[in-house]
From TrEMBL:
<keyword id="KW-1015">Disulfide bond</keyword>
<feature type="disulfide bond">
    <location>
        <begin position="195"/>
        <end position="202"/>
    </location>
</feature>
<dbReference type="GO" id="GO:0038036">
    <property type="term" value="F:sphingosine-1-phosphate receptor activity"/>
</dbReference>
<keyword id="KW-0812">Transmembrane</keyword>
<keyword id="KW-0675">Receptor</keyword>
<feature type="transmembrane region" description="Helical">
    <location>
        <begin position="94"/>
        <end position="114"/>
    </location>
</feature>
<dbReference type="InterPro" id="IPR000276">
    <property type="entry name" value="GPCR_Rhodpsn"/>
</dbReference>
<keyword id="KW-0472">Membrane</keyword>
<keyword id="KW-1003">Cell membrane</keyword>
<feature type="domain" description="G-protein coupled receptors family 1 profile">
    <location>
        <begin position="73"/>
        <end position="337"/>
    </location>
</feature>
<feature type="transmembrane region" description="Helical">
    <location>
        <begin position="321"/>
        <end position="340"/>
    </location>
</feature>
<feature type="transmembrane region" description="Helical">
    <location>
        <begin position="277"/>
        <end position="301"/>
    </location>
</feature>
<feature type="transmembrane region" description="Helical">
    <location>
        <begin position="61"/>
        <end position="82"/>
    </location>
</feature>
<dbReference type="InterPro" id="IPR017452">
    <property type="entry name" value="GPCR_Rhodpsn_7TM"/>
</dbReference>
<keyword id="KW-0325">Glycoprotein</keyword>
<feature type="disulfide bond">
    <location>
        <begin position="308"/>
        <end position="313"/>
    </location>
</feature>
<dbReference type="GO" id="GO:0005886">
    <property type="term" value="C:plasma membrane"/>
</dbReference>
């Protein structure tokens, strides 16, 4: 008797495929199915408006212009670093890496905007994951680069020694680790940590991402933010403590280092130190304040996304504005981390407009950014050269000459 239809075995994917290979094949087939995108966006309520029916809107044009400025600004900084041999030093590697990640963030977000709207519903899941993952990886690299810069500044201040060959290796290790961690975080959804096949666990902001993945990433970034705050707080304390020791002197034998100023300049020295504290505190406040203002709204939105069910939180459908504010951080990073260096400003000005912005003797005309300046007079600038590290650590532009001068002075004492 012929076997009934009910008794017939289920069709297999292939005669020689293992269960694991069959799962990968089915996942690959789902990743090429455009209807998955429509189903997920419809479930989260994102298809109720006209956003995914129309083309680019005015706000999209604004974000595209911002991204173009990000790309141009960071490309100029990278070109200045590449053309000037003075910047081919380990201390500029992290700044170059931050600039590169910000440039790529601008590029990937431009692609994201162009392929959004009505174009989103034409994507396959694999293209969607690549689109969102590209933005995620570059933004994560930018954020982790800020942490790497804070780590390097802290290590430099704690050791207070001239640069050695080990510093180059440490820089490359930090840069490599930042990109490896960013890539790992970015590829987790496409490798399986997503909500395909389980709509109830989907994010509203990113409909193919699982809420558990969103919560994990927000926790990681909040941890990075906390680490940056702690490191800069310690840097400020170290700078303040070192300046007090250098200005106040000490005793207790040959092993004790004594660095004292003359009695006639004691009051002036105290005033300069007070100004340095304020300048350092101002810069640290700018660094942390800009980062928090740009990123914290997006973190709060994503936390709300984890807690809210689809359609219950209307603010989740305005996520583009929150991501746009986070992208602005990539526009401000070159100003905060690069243009605070006088040498870097001079190199960029030479690159852009050498004749109109430089005097005949090669000095830069005073066009700068007052709130990023640390020396208000030539006298104070000389004091900065003597005491070295206190004035340069706030911007991260600690050069070998600064540390060697301070280190040599300490050894002679």
């Amino acid at each position: 008797m012929a076997a009934s239809v009910e008794d017939a075995p289920e069709p297999t994917v292939g005669p020689h495929l293992t269960p694991a290979a069959g799962y990968l094949f089915r996942m690959f087939r789902e990743y090429q199915n455009n209807s998955v995108i429509v189903a997920h966006y419809n479930y989260t309520g994102k298809l109720m408006g006209n956003k995914y029916r129309d083309g680019l809107k005015a706000v999209d044009i604004v974000f595209l212009i911002i991204c173009l400025l990000i790309v141009l600004e960071n490309a100029i900084v990278l070109l200045a670093i590449w053309r000037n041999k003075k910047f081919h030093l380990p201390m500029y590697y992290l700044l170059g890496n931050l600039t590169l990640s910000d440039l790529l963030a601008g590029l990937t977000y431009m692609v994201n905007i162009v392929t959004s709207g009505a174009n989103t519903l034409r994507l396959t899941p694999v293209l969607w994951f690549l689109r969102e993952g590209g933005v995620f990886i570059t933004l994560a690299a930018s954020v982790i680069s800020l942490l790497a810069i804070a780590i390097e500044r802290h290590v430099t201040m704690v050791r207070m020694k001239p640069y050695h060959g080990a510093k180059r290796g440490r820089m490359f290790a930090l840069i490599g680790a930042s990109w490896v961690v960013s890539a790992l975080l970015g590829v987790l959804p496409i490798t399986g940590w997503n909500c395909m096949g389980g709509l109830e666990g989907c994010s509203t902001v990113l409909p193919l991402y699982a809420k558990s993945y969103i919560l994990f990433c927000v926790s990681v970034f909040l941890g990075i933010l906390l680490a940056i705050v702690v490191l800069y707080a310690r840097i400020f304390r170290i700078v303040k403590s070192n300046t007090q020791k250098m200005g106040g002197g000490g005793g207790g034998g040959g092993a004790t280092i004594v660095v004292v100023a003359s009695a006639a300049s004691t009051r002036k020295g105290a005033a300069r130190k007070s100004q340095k504290y304020l300048a350092l505190l101002k810069t640290v406040t700018i660094v942390l304040g800009v980062f928090i203002v740009c990123w914290l709204p997006l973190f709060v939105l994503l936390l709300a996304d984890v807690c809210c069910s689809p359609g219950s939180c209307g603010v989740l459908y305005k996520a583009d504005y929150f991501l746009g504010v986070a992208i602005v951080n990539s526009l401000l990073n070159p100003i905060i981390y690069t243009l605070t260096s006088r040498d870097m400003r001079r190199a960029i000005i030479r690159l852009l407009c050498r004749r109109c912005l430089l005097t005949k003797d090669g000095h830069v005309r005073r066009i700068g950014v007052p709130f990023l300046e640390f020396s208000t007079s030539r006298t104070e600038a000389a004091s900065h050269r003597v005491e070295g590290m206190e004035t340069t650590v706030s911007t991260g532009n600690i050069s070998p000459s600064h540390i060697k001068a301070l280190y040599t002075k300490v050894l002679r004492s």
